[in-house]
Amino acid sequence: MLSFSTLSSFGAPFKFLMIIIARSWVSVLGGLLISSMMSLMLNGETFGGILPILTVVFGIFAFVANLLRAYCQLKARGMAVVWLLISLIYLAYLHGACIIFVLSIASANFLLVKIFARTKYFSSVLWTFNLFFLMYNRIHEGYSFSTFGQHWAYLDHFRGTFRWHICFNFVILRMISFGYDFHWAHEDSHFDQKKHIQRCHICKAGKACYLHLQERSVQNDKFSFSIYLCYLVYAPLYIAGPIISFNAFASQLDMPQNNYSVRDVSWYGSRWLFSLFLMELMTHLFYYNAFAISGLWKQLSPMDVFIIGYGVLNFMWLKFFLMWRYFRLWSLICGIEAPENMPRCINNCYNLESFWKNWHASFNKWLVRYMYIPLGGSQRKLLNIWVIFTFVAVWHDLEWKLLSWAWLTCLFFVPEMILKSLANTFQAESAFGEFIFRELSAVAGAITITCLMVANLVGYVIGLSGINWFISRFLQKEGLPILGGMFITFYVGTKLMFHIDDAKKRRHQH
Predict the structure, then answer these.
(1) What broad class describes the main subcellular location of this protein (predicted)?
(2) Domain with 126 in it
């Protein structure tokens, strides 16, 4: 058992080395608040606790679906019917009689899209309908059958094992995706396929990358009710995602993904198993969460508190990394490639933009395609982020703390965007000018990481009640050198990330 005396005996040099290893502690308070909803989605059970039964269920699903696809030579419509039947069995267990609510709202959305898709009122109707049910479902906690009449009250005893209105948040995103992809299918596409193929090494090799599948509109017959419902309730991605656009899903329902061979999928699964083993080691050998939850951090030094916070952050990252990759793995086995939700390690992000591109990345792609671009894109970036992050907060839950997080995140974003805009206009005319620019960028990255690290400590280790303790400890003689050393560490770490990015660019160029 790890004791306080053992922890304090490591000494300052070792502790400072630990902080150097933790160089790019980039976390936003809300980033983890948002992901904490995933734990709620497991209905009180840990992911590891239901992992064996999930594996058996998805193994059966994958075997049946792939066997029928191969034996009956099924294409989009046929596979849609197969996956729809399988997924409805899955939903019947999860939600019981509440599956009626899911199918009723989804059917109403389908009718609205078909009626208004070619009118100028389409966006207003689609967003009004989906935002209404997003908030109404939460307010009423998924409704009660008794409110529709006492003769329906007996159905309240068959509500399944999973709260349907929590999972329905993902269904909302899919309904909006279907609506816009159907709407844009009747307009001229701005996506230059030839130019994209020339630049994309995946498409150049004769395959189809996710961006190509998403931007290339599918044939009109793919926007049928059966394929639409199959997309909404597709079992491997239903509970937690990753989020996939309708175009990309329907394309792969017709022609299964070929970017990952059997060997690639096997290697992907092996890496997941190794990550699961790593999680088990962290759970049994490190006590970051115990220190954070119990409040024992108050008895530790400021350096120890930062190390604990770093451990909590990486534990959270690995936890959701495992969850998202597990569901994506089964989707790959079944022939559907979804975007990777954790494409980059959290310790290799030095600004807010890169953080959000690599934490729940599929949601980021969805926001860019269906909100950011329709709102005006980069031309109205300073305004768009307020709308987008407010939606992200409401999408997760109707709580003031989430709205506060969203608006604080926007305040973090504003200076970063202004600095990036200035940096883009700055043209280094000499080697010295480029050196100065790079140094200033590293300092800016260190400042951003430091601010976000403090926010994460307040949110997930010391809490709001510990702010006074934090200020009193770190503004004293013992705390100021730690803050200074931490800033220098983040500065060095940011420069190291610059070199990593440069190496990747050179590798792609060659």
Answers:
(1) membrane
(2) 75-254
